[in-house]
Amino acid sequence: MDTKNAYAVIKRARQILKSAKPRHVAQKTHQDYMNLGARVMNDKKLLKEARTANTYYKRLSAYNYCVDYSIRSLLAKQDREQKTKAHGWTGTVKRLERAIREYDEAQAIKGDKPTDFEPKQSKRKHVRGLPPQWTQQYWENVDKGNKYAPVIALLLISGVRPAELQKGVQITFHEKHVVLFVTIWGAKCRGDGSSGQKERVVAFDCEGLPPDSPEMFLVRHYLAQPNAAEDGVFIQANAKALYNYVSRLSRKIWPRRKHHVTPYTFRHILSATLKKSERFDDEMIAKVLGHASCRSQLEYGSVRQGGRGSSILDVRAEKTPRPHKNPNKNPR
């Protein structure tokens, strides 16, 4: 490649990046996108073969991210090579040219999406048809000596994500005020802060609660641990193993149900319960669920699915959730 053509390629790459919005994602998301994007890059049929819209857009997003990252990386590399007068910088530009061709192909694909997707499988379906007091029935069937008992208690009262439980959740207890504090380090958080809450602390009023409630079980679990007052108590669970435990117990309790309870079902029912209560506004619900936007509540349980109430007293989050853009569209 001669110098003139090389500079034309570099100019085009800069134009592409100027029009593209940089994406800031967590390291794990970056790695997942790069792996999936590379697969799509090598086999475009993966886009056509997507059975659901969610899978299609996930693959397309990963593909675009991978192409964008390749252009940025190669452009930066050739810049360094030019400055140091490194031998063979035109070889990097050739790779950059191939990345640009991939970019052009990705742009063409955007307008050629499949239309025969299967219907979306909403997680809300797991809540439908369950008995009115199913959470209480589920908790009664949990073996309180099982290692997952504290985890299930946390799912019931806080709606914590399985990925957050895999990181570890901290509980502390204020004996004087009989308040249980649950500190959650968020999942689904972007580096630019546009989604998720990096940290949230949910306070639960335990005064007067029945001894067999999930909250009081956690209080007893906390008090039984040495050095709990100094360090708090950390509760962790492998997300996949937790899913298996939760669904297995669900099948045992309700063997005739088609859709069984999963860890996310507790999150949906908590959202529905908070929406049903007049004590919680959209901003507070978003904080409890670890959302950066009130709009995210649209994807979760509806008011009619809500339970009797919640012991949540207050919640502190890293940032104030963005209000819903359309005030006429009620997240509830």
Write the layout of secondary structure elements.
Blueprint: H1 3-19, H2 27-42, H3 45-48, H4 53-83, H5 89-109, H6 134-141, H7 149-158, H8 162-167, E1 169-174, E2 179-185, E3 199-205, H9 214-223, H10 228-231, E4 233-235, H11 239-253, H12 263-276, H13 282-289, E5 312-317
Antiparallel strand pairs: 1-2, 1-4, 2-3, 3-5
Helix pairs in contact: 1-4, 1-5, 2-4, 4-5, 7-9, 7-12
Plain-language structure description:
The structure is a single chain. This protein is α+β, with helices and mostly antiparallel strands and 332 residues long. The protein folds into two domains: 3-109, no CATH class; 123-317, Intergrase catalytic core (hpI Integrase, Chain A). The protein is 49% helix and 9% strand. The chain contains 13 helices and five strands. The protein has helices at residues 3-19, 27-42, 45-48, 53-83, 89-109, 134-141, 149-158, 162-167, 214-223, 228-231, 239-253, 263-276, 282-289, and strands spanning 169-174, 179-185, 199-205, 233-235, 312-317. It has a five-stranded antiparallel sheet with strand order 4-1-2-3-5. A hairpin with a 4-residue loop joins strand 1 and strand 2. Helix 2 (27-42) crosses helix 4 and helix 4 (53-83) runs antiparallel to helix 5 (89-109). The protein is elongated. The N and C termini lie far apart (59 Å). The mean pLDDT is 86. InterPro entries: DNA_brk_join_enz, Integrase-like_cat_sf, Integrase_catalytic. Residues 301-332 are annotated as: Disordered. Residues 322-332 have a biased composition (Basic residues). Keywords: DNA recombination. GO terms for molecular function: DNA binding.
